[in-house]
Design brief:
Elements: H1 8-16, E1 21-22, H2 34-48, H3 52-72, E2 75-77, E3 84-92, E4 96-98, E5 104-106, H4 109-114, E6 120-131, E7 134-147, H5 162-167, E8 179-181, E9 184-188, E10 190-194, E11 200-203, E12 209-219, E13 222-231, E14 236-239, E15 247-248, H6 249-255, H7 261-268, H8 272-276, H9 279-286, H10 292-303, H11 309-322, H12 335-353, E16 368-371, H13 373-401, H14 408-411, H15 414-427, E17 438-440, H16 446-453, E18 455-458, H17 467-470, E19 494-496, E20 502-503, H18 509-518, E21 522-523, H19 524-530, E22 535-539, E23 542-547, H20 550-563, E24 571-576, E25 581-586, E26 592-600, E27 603-604, H21 608-616, H22 621-626, E28 630-634, E29 643-644, E30 656-657, H23 680-690, E31 708-712, E32 720-721, H24 723-728, E33 737-743, E34 755-758, H25 759-763, E35 769-779, E36 789-790, E37 820-822, E38 826-828, E39 830-832, H26 837-843, E40 850-851, E41 854-855, E42 861-871, E43 877-887, E44 894-897, E45 902-909, E46 916-917, E47 925-927, H27 938-953, E48 956-958, H28 967-976, E49 984-985, E50 987-988, E51 1000-1009, H29 1014-1017, ...
Parallel strand pairs: 1-48, 10-18, 22-25, 29-30, 32-48, 33-47, 34-45
Antiparallel strand pairs: 2-3, 3-6, 4-5, 6-7, 8-9, 9-17, 10-16, 11-12, 12-13, 13-14, 14-15, 18-19, 20-26, 21-23, 22-23, 24-25, 26-27, 26-28, 26-30, 31-35, 33-51, 34-47, 35-43, 36-39, 37-42, 38-41, 39-40, 42-43, 44-45, 44-51, 46-50, 49-51, 52-55, 53-54
Helix pairs in contact: 3-13, 6-10, 6-12, 7-12, 10-11, 13-15, 27-28
Protein name: DNA-directed RNA polymerase subunit beta
Domain RNA polymerase beta subunit protrusion: 49-419
Cofactor: Zn(2+)
Length: 1141
Amino acid sequence: MGVDNPNTERNRALDSAPIPVLRSRRLRGVFPSTDERWALVDAFIREGGLVKHQLDSFNDFVEKKLQEIVSENSIIETEVKGLYIKLERIEVGRPRVREADASEHVLYPMEARLRNLTYAAPLYLTMSLYVNDEEVDRQKVYIGDLPIMVRSKYCNLHGLKRQELISKLEDPDDPGGYFIINGSERVIVSQEDLAPDKPFYDKGDKASITHVAKVISIGAGYKTTVTVERHKDGIIYVIFPAIATRIPFPIVMRALGLETDEDIVLAVSDDPDIQNELLPSLQFSMQLANTVDDALDFIGSKVAIGQPRDVRIERARQVLDRYFLPHLGTTEEVRVKKALMIGQMVKGVIEMYLGRRQPDDKDHVGNKRVRLVGDLIAQLFRTVFRQVMQDVRQQLERHYSRGKIPSLVTLVRADIITERIRHALATGNWIGGRTGVSQMLDRTNILSTLSHLRRVVSNLSRTQPHFEARDLHPTQWGRLCAIETPEGQNCGLVKNLALLSTITVGVNEEEVEKMLYDLGVVPILKARKEGTKGSEVYLNGRLIGIHGEPDKLVSIIREMRRRGQISHEINIARIRSEHLDEVRVNCDGGRLRRPLLIIDNGKLRLKPEHIEKLVKGEWSWSDLISNGIIEFLDGEEEENALVAINPEEDMSKYTHMEIVPSVMLGAVASIIPYAEHNQSPRNIYEAAMAKQSLGFPAANYRFRMDSRGHLLIYPERPLVITRGMELNGYLRRPTGQNAIVALLTYTGYNMEDAVILNKSSIERGMFRSVFFRTYETEQMRYPGGEEDRIEIPSAEVRGYKGPEAYAHLDEDGIVSPEVFVSGGEVLIGKTSPPRFYGVYAETVVSSARRDSSITVRRGEKGIVDSVVITETNEGYKLVKVKVRELRIPELGDKFASRHGQKGVMGMMIPMQDMPFTEDGITPDVIVNPHALPSRMTVGQLLESMAGKVAALRGLMIDATPFEGVTEEELRDLLIRSGFRWDGKEIMYSGLMGRKLEADIFIGVVYYQKLHHMVADKIHARARGPVQILTRQPTEGRSREGGLRLGEMERDVLIAHGAAALLRERLVESSDRYVMYICEECGMIAWYDSNRGKPVCPIHGDKGRIARVVVPYAFKLMLQELMSLGIYPKIELGDLIEERRV
């Protein structure tokens, strides 16, 4: 769709020619060297990319979770005996679009973006209808559309090569991992929560409660919190939402099938000290219930009040099966499992009381789970699917009652699933009242896109302090970026994945449990009855048994994992303290893990031949895992590991080694050169600003019609790079330019963080960018045969804007490309029928249409870049017009280096007036030296020196944190290049020609232009619109609002005694209103139009009426008081004579 550039081949050759990179000489003689270790990181990124967790999770949802949800509700039973529907296999098709004429064709993401479609695939469910227990109909039924994640296995782009992607107008470097809903790209942000199905122990929060255990149980579509409390009197209670009151724990245990006190005690512990603590609870509950039925009746009396005993017992069984610990199952067979879970929680509470167990650290990564896109969509789909099947059941019963046997296709309303899921993804409003789950994908630049796809959000309240939750926890090392988090109320609650961090999808728990029993774990009840001694074995937080040789068990499982005999997602940890001895096995989804090199008997398992195979392409990352060279550890297993940072350390005492230390950073923070030399807040600021910098967001920007976007005209690769940039695609999509930066106070226009820019550099194109805005409209059809028309409106239409506004329109009513347009001018001419056609029909000629043309925003101008005329799938005409505006840097535009040193342009100085060096070099940017001492951004000084060396030597310099070219190496290179070792030079004033008295630090620093530009923020108003209710000026730039003179400004004017100014601002220039008041009663008079004078509502003609000027808001307040039955009287002063009407 574009003309091939004749220089394309030459450019491609240049692009593929590697620019030499100067690396530090450290760690060159050891194995693995820095280069060899980074080859491992490169293999990880090559195999899965940076959004692998999103793609894997969605693929898992479609391949496994969809069928599981269907299987949960596999039979739809009705009130009629023998009449039911069996649900079998669910299938997902390929994304396609159904047009208004009922034709269908394959849909690709770019078409969905341009035509405002949802990129979704059809869902087909095989259903069988049974009447009198005999199958009468079996069909594969279309049940709705499921939005498909771009670049997932079910996307039409999956498996396409670079050239094929380009032919589909896709950016080959786009990571995918998002959805397209109504033409907008939306990302489901990963949610961080406490681990479900795992008990947490803590101290009681009330005086009467000493200790508590809580478990959040999620299963079969239900989520309940079960709490076990130990009260001061020693009695232990169980609380869960289905029952309003506390229930002594022995009653719950009996109701779950443990009849005797001995069974109950053994389900808790075989330790005499713990058993003694159970006595108060057992004695108390003996008075209430002694048998299984008594216990069920006791629970039933709380939920089925006033019902017969057998109803109460049945109701209690239902509650315990369905709503009590649903993650263990919802059938009768799992009741003993549930009893054992309660026993485990009771034991933990008593251990805390006895001082044997410490409260759990809820901020430990091992106690957190990240809910990915697959879990969140599964939660949504489960709810919607149940509603659809409920609807199917009602339809079936209705048809059958009329003596008809319906076709399965007619029973299913496919639009329910399609619309509910689309609406949730389009708004971000999820099941359970959560908001902001899906968000518009940030396309400012490649870093903002990657960051958005790798974000992890905590659900804690933003308004409360939560100091511990916001802190950087030591276990987050290597899993969550230590730098990238916002400032303000989201600080520490919004986090990002570290570079090598992965999130587990989950392994079948039953298979792992069977494997553990095969390896000698004795089931818990059997072990307690037989008195087996050893370590307690927990699987996903649930106590399953005892093992006599825990160290052997742990080493066998680890060895099996390293050999590839079991899933690498299984993690095992041995937790030991004075009183505790536990083996914890985890195989659930949502655990944050990181890869580490394995050390065996003081030696790395990684060998030079492995690196060689990787580099040659004979091996991939998966081979390193399956051959036991690298393994992933979760937060709990890492408690058993001792990790070496560098290969030169003594390996004999370590179990693992870091692949590279700087992978503790995320995709954004890893672009900061020499980050370890900066004060931590500066790195945090840069991580935020890198996402606001303008660059090259997507290679297909010419064909995209995003609502707004920026493009830096001449983005450059930085001369000072980090290894992270080579992995996250930043070098192919840079967001700044290399500038010659001098540190000096020149003219004073760079005080307070302002920067001075070289006017001549700007004129040559430095920091120029283009701003794109897309305007769109649809030609709608309305009931009654009326429709919009895209045309040049005639002068008769209501709201006609005058002929000059429509001057740029062609005959079809749409502007042509490459036409200059400015604020208020029409881009798409459009007329619509009257809004309230039925109301207007009596008073207005029926043909009177209104102008609903699309105009350029006020204050904006530009050139029409492209026009797209297409159709929506409903058959409506859709027109999109993209306008581009050249943005040349001007005073007030914001710039920043890569070290959090942000500032606005304070002055542009022509090149001839800029200071210059002995070689005649003039800086592009002059920064105030006062920006450095207190902020301690030493990284910027090192980058400046490195940039200077890079420019002189014609190469790039590696400044990766912890392993970049050192200060000593840079000084040596500067001296060898004929410059001073400290980066300073003698400079001369461009204004006076004199030598500057100080030596000036000058070098090359990479600067970013941020999207905060004066052109988007400038705002002033003399007159303009007012609010209908208060008649005060509107608020905000977009509404042409006024500038608020607030409470504090009012107080200043009062303090200065500036009464006239105060009146002018708050009344005359705001909401001046003339009000008529009766002198007798102080009431507001009403205006009698017949007699042409105001009349008092109480005294009529006898009242003396005065005219006063007040703010309209005051008059509004008086009337609101009257509506409350309050009678406010206005007392008039002495000057009333001249105001009398």
